[in-house]
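Assess this one:

_____
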Amino acid sequence: MATKTKKKAFVKMQCSECKRINYFVKKSKGNDPEKKLDLKKYCKWCRAHIPHKEAKK
């Protein structure tokens, strides 16, 4: 039998400096779905590695 896989949701990542949406990533709906992602990603408008936070839907 096939096992069921957990669903993953796409979330928007927004730059902390310029507030532009630069990335779309998959987020697991595991133990704590209310917790927001916070990743250090490259922003091509700011031209630096800046923390990106999960944006509103």
User: Anything to note?
Assistant: The mean pLDDT is 87. Residues 1 and 7 are 18 Å apart (CA to CA).
